[in-house]
Structure formats: structure tokens, C-alpha cells
Amino acid sequence: MEVFKRAILQPGPPESFALQTVQEVVKPQKQTKLAQDENQLLENILRTLLQELVSSSVQSGEQIMMYGQSIDDGETTQGHIPRLLDIVLYLCEREHVEGGMIFQLLEDLTEMSTMRNCKDIFGYIESKQDILGKQELFARGKLVMLRTCNQLLRRLSKANDVVFCGRILMFLAHFFPLSERSAVNIKGVFNTSNETKYEKDPPDGLSIDFNFYKTFWSLQEYFCNPASLTPTTAKWQKFTSSLMIVLNTFEAQPLSDEEGDANNLEEEASNFSIKYLTSSKLMGLELKDPSFRRHVLVQCLILFDYLRAPGKNEKDLPSESMKEEIKSCEERVKKLLEMTPPKGKDFLRKIEHILEREKNWVWWKRDGCPPFEKQPLEKKTVQDGTKKRRPRWRLGNKELSQLWKWADQNPNALTDPQRVRTPAIMEYWKPLAEDMDASAGIEAEYHHKNSRVYCWKGLRFSARQDLDGFSRFTDHGIEGVVPLELLPPDVRSKYQAKPNDKSKRAKKDDTKGAAPQVEENQIATPASEVDGEGIRADFESSAAQMDVDATATGNISQGGTPTPDEHQKQSSDTDVAQEAGQLEADAEVEAGMIDGETDAEVDLDAVS
Prior knowledge:
By secondary structure, the protein is an all-alpha fold. The chain is built from 28 helices and two strands. Strands 1-2 form a two-stranded antiparallel ribbon. The protein starts with a helix and ends with a helix.
């Protein structure tokens, strides 16, 4: 501790002696960074030293931040406590000690000081807010700083210390990011403890209507907690009836321009208090005050804006009748604001602008306060010389424009050997074949068959390069298109067709192909082109068929019932005879067609 006391008295910046002082006191294991137990030891020493300095300043009767300050040769030196804080802040900024140590010392200092000294302490905090707001320090001490500022706000008087409270709130707004959730009232809780007390019984010698007085100040109960108006209609009816009485009174007693000019609003704003006096004796004077009227009317607009706020649940939304009453009341309130001097129309326009912007914040809170800070763009350094503007090609979409920009001249890009080419079929289906291998252990959701673009391109490649594999798509899907050479043996057998299936399929295809061909020949051959030889061929084939049947019948009649061998032989002979007759008939029909064509041509030549 004595080492730090001597360090405080040393002249010069903290960079020249701060680290050596810590090494002399703690004697750390590492030369530039303390361990956790070493940080705790150093923090205890500094907090004890800070308490001694505060105690000495109180005993001497000096202000805390001025204690130990001296003037040497016309130069004013710092006090002991600001000097100590500068040393610790330097060590935290350079990460020689734990970053939250400076915030802990500031919290202790504010707790040990009076409100008069806290103003000087907070002035020091404001002067160092750029350093305290750095990321390496902010992450370690933001909660401690928030707790320190909240404790100061609780100790301050909201009526007498308005400026100091505003300084604290402005510091928090600068210190914390705009989307910090700790500074946002997420649940929309109202400060119901802010009660407005007014007289319940009429005093003697009152010159105004006491019922109006009670009705007027009872509106503050609804302004304090607007959420109480939505669940029940009884409160809403009571509120509207009270509000109508107040609006009727304002309309019956309009303010003149002279009364508006008599109240200097700018001078009043400098001495503004957040609470108005509620004495019944002042009611008459307050009704003649334009700022008082504006205060009440703006409260009405804020309440109406809350009731119609977007993003609410259906149960919290106002009913249709309630919406109509809100609209009519709002029109009357705006009209009264226009009539209230001075510059009523300008004042109303500004209030409407503020309420319109407030809707953006409402939506932001409804969405969970997402961060909307954007990182600054890096400025690209421009090279020396004039910057040549490149031509911009807009060819319909991003892909076509990028295709055009691949080369300065498009033909060079098309003939470049390094450009993108159609892959080989084996190379393209290799990833899907690896997915189909069970030993690879690839999960089904990561298979390439789930990609529609991949499957579509593969089918196009297979249709051009592998028709055999492409034909398997009908039976097995996209996995059947994969070449069999790429598949493991256990998977290949599933997609490999059997020889019998191949022969049956080929025979079936031939039969399907022959039938249409015969029909086409019959349709394409006119009756006039078939000559007598064609008819004779049909007749001979039918006669041969009759001879075979007659022979078979004679054998049956001579020998009785045929034996199984004979029956089989007869049927086989019959089939052979039928096939032979059919072949002869087909051959003769073809010959007749050729002869008929030739004869027809000869006849046409003779006629010509």
C-alpha cells in the first residue's frame, strides 16, 4: 500500500511507472499479466487504499476529488483519488489487470461519498467515458456501471436534482448500445407508485366547483396506469365521462392570445418541475395557464395512442365502440391544442410527429428488441491517378451479368480451356454413389438425392451419355441411374437387371414394335396394288391349313382316339405347317406387292 501511495505522488503520465509499481507490490508470476488470485490481492489493496484516502479527505474537510491537490510553479496537480483512478484505468486498458477493477473502485467511491461529492465523481466518469466504453472494458464492467448509476438515481431527488439525473441518463444512453435490453421496459410495466394526491373534502371559502376539481385530478389515476382501461368497460365509461367534463370546461373557457403571451413558456421551461401543485385554491389560476392545459391534453393523446398501439393481443385491443369514442375524443383534444396559444398549430404538429415516431419503437419492442446497429463500412483507398469507371452490364439477372463479366470479350471466355465444362458421367454420379454406400455412414438428410438441381443435371447427363442407366430411372428412381461400376457389390445387385428380365423385356419390345409395323403395312397398301398373285397366295395358305386339318381328322377316324404321343406329334406338325404356310403367304404377299407396283407402273407408262 505504501508503494501505491508513493506512486500517486510521482509526476508524469501513468505509463512510465504503473506496471513497475504493480510488479513491485504483487510480484506476479508473469511479467505483464496477473493471475486470478493476484488480481484479487491487488483489488483488495486498492479498495483499502481508496477507503483511507476518502477518510482522510473527510477529516480534512476537503472535497474528495480535490484532496491532495496542490499548485506548484503555477501548475495544478491532480488530487490523490483521481491520480489513483488514472493509474488503475491505464492498467485495465492495457490488460495488465482484470478489466472490471476500475468499475468496482468507482462503485465503492460513490457509495462512500455524499451527493455533493458524487457530482464531482460523476464528472470524472463522464470525462473517461470513451475509454470506459471500449469493448475490452465494457464487457467486464457494464453491469457494475449500470448498478452504480441506478444507485445514484435512487439517492437523487427527482424534483430537486433533475439536471444531475439527466446527466446520468445521458451517460447511460452513450455508454450502452441503443438496443441494450437492460435499458428497455420489455413488459411495458407502468410506474403505478407515482400517485397524484389531491384534496378529498372541500375546504371553506372555495371559489370554484369542487366536483370539477375532483373530476379533473381523478384523471391522473388513468394516466398513471392506462392498462387498467382495457379489461373492463366500467372504468372506460367513468374515464370518458370525466374527460368530457374537463374538455367541455376547456372549450367554455378558451384562452386569449394576451393570456398566452403573458406566460413566458421559455422562462417557465428553465424552472420546470415534473409535478404540478394540486391545491384547490390554485385551480382557477392553473386553468388560465396554457402550459398546464397542454400538459393535460398531451397526456390524453399519449393514452389514446397507447390504447391503439399495434401488435397487441386480441383481448387487449379496444372494441369497435371504444375505437369510435377514442376517435371523437382525440379530435376534440387536437382542436383544443390548436386553440391554445401561443403557436398552437405548430405545437400540435410536433406532438403528432413524436407520437408517429413512437410507433416504430413500439414495434421494435414487440419484436423482442433486435439489434439494428450496423458496422461501419471500410473505406477503400483509391490508387493514384484517375479511377476508370467499369461498364455495367445489366442482362436481366445476376447470373447473366456475371457470365458477361468473366472476360473482356465474350468469345474468349467461351473458347477458354479452363472454363466450366460438362463433367463425365462417372465423375458426376460419384458423390451419390458414396451416399448409397452404407459403410460411409452418411445421414439421409445429407444425401445428394435430396438436391433437386443435382438430380436434374444428372438426368440430363445420363440421357446424353448413359441411356442404359437412364432407363433404370423408371424402376428404381434417381439411385438407379448411378452407373453400376461405382456401386459396391451388395448395392449393385439391387439395381442390376437379371438376364431373363432382359430377354423378356426385349421380346416384349419386339412384339410391340412388330404389331404396329404390320398394321402400318396393311394401311399403307391399297387394294388396287394387290394383284392376283397376292390373292392366290392367301388362298393357297388357307388350303394348306385345310389339308392339315383333314389329315388329322382322318387319322383320328381310322385309329380312334389318338395316343398322347400322336396327339403331341399332330399338334407339333400342325404348328409347323401353320408357321410354314404363314411364312409362304407373307412372302408371296410381299412379292405380289412388288409385282403389283411394277405392273401398275408399266400400265401407267403404256397409257402415257
